[in-house]
From TrEMBL:
GO cellular component, as recorded: cytosol
Family to which the UniProt record says this protein belongs: Belongs to the UPF0045 family.
Full protein name: Thiamine-binding protein domain-containing protein
Pfam families according to UniProt: Thiamine_BP
InterPro entries: MTH1187/YkoF-like (IPR029756), Thiamine_BP (IPR002767), UPF0045_domain (IPR051614)
Thiamine-binding protein domain residues: 4-97
Length: 100
């Protein structure tokens, strides 16, 4: 199972505010048929699931700002794909908290 951090930034919108774009992008994630867990953060979205499913939904998310009038979209993706043992968002946080 992979954990992916994604940030989708619309450019060329004429305003510094992007919250309405973020909300529309997040709706795609909420309605995704893929079995994914996700967490919206102030700076990005964290998604947990099968890598192919995550990449598929990110592709759909990337298109949203264009559909809403953005002239350019920058999407950054960071992938943590651990295969030696099962990983999850909760497990990663717990591991750090145990060491604090």
């Amino acid at each position: 199972m992979a954990i992916v951090e994604v940030t989708i930034t619309p450019l060329g919108t004429g305003t510094p505010s992007v919250s309405h774009y973020v909300a529309e992008v997040h709706k795609v994630l909420e309605q995704a048929p893929e079995a994914l867990k996700y967490q919206l953060t102030p700076m990005s979205t964290i998604i947990e699931g099968e890598l192919q499913d995550i990449l598929s939904v990110i592709q759909r998310m990337h298109e949203v700002p264009f559909e809403k009038g953005a002239l350019r979209v920058s999407t950054s993706i960071k992938i943590d794909d651990r295969r030696d043992k099962k990983a999850s968002m909760e497990q990663k946080l717990k591991s750090v908290q145990e060491k604090l």
